[in-house]
Amino acid sequence: MTALDTRRRRTPAVTQTRWVGDASCAEVDPELFFEPGIAAEREAKEVCAGCLMRQACLESALALPIVSDFGVRGGLSVKERRRLRRGQPVPVISPSMARVLASRDLVEARVAAGVPLKMVARELGVGRETLRSARAMWAAQDKAVAA
């Protein structure tokens, strides 16, 4: 029996991967979730934002030994999961913000086509302020990546 086999036997049932096929990340290159850098982390979190399996993924990640915990899992970075383990607050994304974050390409295309923010927000079923906040966050992240 290898160390990996032992670890698998000791981890809780929630770490089993029955939910993986239904996760949003099943359609994406898995390397995205383990690439270094702010841009890659942002992109991975955008995939997680609208995923119905996010909670199961996060529970699975939290069940891992800390030494093997890396990458974006359950919509959180390693640093955010460590904060969660220590009982410290972790920023929470509302369902409406998650919808916007998962639709960045659509939002940017619609805005570039001259569609008013009010209409884009209505199409996504969110408020204009949520859309403005997401766009401001994207601009700040893009600026940080460029620096």
Commentary on this structure:
The protein folds into 2 domains: 3-85, no CATH class; 95-146. The protein is 55% helix and 0% strand. The protein has 8 helices and no strands. The chain has helices at residues 3-10, 38-49, 54-63, 78-85, 95-101, 104-112, 117-124, 128-146. The termini are far apart. Residues 1-15 have low confidence and may be disordered.
List the helices and strands and how they pair.
Elements (H helix, E strand, L loop, with lengths): L2 H8 L27 H12 L4 H10 L14 H8 L9 H7 L2 H9 L4 H8 L3 H19 L1
Helix pairs in contact: 2-5, 7-8
Mean pLDDT score, rounded?
Answer: 81
- Tally of individual domains: 2
Series of H and E elements:
HHHHHHHH
What oligomeric assembly is this protein in? Answer: single chain
Number of strands: 0
Contiguous uncertain segments of 5+ residues: 1-15
How many whole angstroms does the radius of gyration measure? 17 Å
Helix content: 55-70%
How large a portion of the residues is in β-strands, by DSSP E? under 5%
Number of helices: 8
Distance between the termini: 48 Å
Largest sheet: none
Write down the overall geometry. globular
Descriptors:
2 domains, 0% strand, mainly alpha, 147 residues, 8 helices, single chain
In brief:
By secondary structure, the protein is mainly α. It is built from eight helices and no strands.
